[in-house]
Amino acid sequence: MKIFLTSVGNFGIFSGSVFTRISRKQVRSGELIRQMYRVGVDSLSVVNLCALFIGLVLVLQTSSLLARFGAEGQVATIVGAAFVREIGPVFAAIMFAGRVGTGVAAEIGSMVVTEQVDAYRAFGLDPVAKLALPRVMAMTVMLPALTAISCLVGITGGYLLAYAETGVPGGIYLDKALAAVTPIDVLGCLSKGAIFGLLIGLIATYSGFSAPRTTEGVGEATTRSMVNSVLVVLVADLILTKFFMLIG
Question: Count of domains in the chain?
Fold first, then answer.
């Protein structure tokens, strides 16, 4: 328990230092754009592929279940609501944590092991502002965009299979899918993406900076980043879902 509380306290101090540098605008626009491209555009393929197959599987499962009650036409309602409210934000965040978060943790952890972070300090540079800040900001900005795109891909994939399996006309499918999504759902989807991106960015960079100065330490930091990110995303999703249900 003592180790856990110490880790939480250190993470809180680190997060505070990142927020302080954000308020002071200590980030270069060129580096921020480079990181946005790296964590966002380069993640499109894996996130969208995941969303596509989830949409296909979701239609297969729901259509077979609804067919027992003669309600195959409601597949679009379930797919649209499920993707925007839960599946899109959560699975995009998990894939993001696996691809981007672990990479950031390994990159910064390697710099700690090879004493590059110490070199930053020796030259009077702030490693948190140079390394953590642009990555955290890039993840916070780009994950909502990835989440929105993954929702569109998942719903579209569901439409293709629903049309092939049940013969639901495209117009009816899209109308029902859109009718199931409210403005609060869209706001919640994008808000979850931004908050998940911020949390993953903070956890990944903190894991990198706190990596033990050994070769094995880099692997430990990468694993810790992935596990902690997924756990925090799931807990945050529960809290945010309840919050948006209350205001909706």
Answer: 1
End-to-end CA distance of the chain: 38
Find the domain containing 49 and state its range.
Answer: 2-247
> Lowest-pLDDT range, 9-13, 30-34, 115-119, 157-161?
157-161
Measured distance CA(242)–CA(246) in Å, rounded: 6
Q: Could you tell me if 21 and 137 are in contact, meaning their C-beta atoms sit under 8 angstroms apart?
A: no
Enter the pTM of the model: 0.92
Q: What six digits make up the tokens of 206? A: 């903190």
Per-residue b or e along 195-220, where b marks 16 or more CB atoms closer than 10 Å to that residue's CB? bbbbbbbbbbbbbbbbbeeeeebbeb
Q: Determine contact, residues 148/89, Cβ cutoff 8 Å.
A: no
Q: How confident is the model over 13-20, as a mean pLDDT?
A: 90
Residue-wise pLDDT for 126-176, tens only, equals: 899 899 999 999 999 999 999 999 999 998 888 888 777 766 776 778 888
Return the structure tokens found at 177.
């899918």
Q: Which two tokens stand for residue 172?
A: 């009816």
**Residue-wise DSSP of 161-210:** HHHHHH---HHHHHHHHHHT--HHHHHHHHHHHHHHHHHHHHHHHHHHHT
| Spatial separation of the C-alpha atoms in residues 132 and 109, rounded to whole Å | 12
* pLDDT reported for residue 248: 65
Instruction: Report the phi/psi class of residue 125: left, alpha or beta, with left for phi > 0 and alpha for psi in -120 to 50.
Output: beta
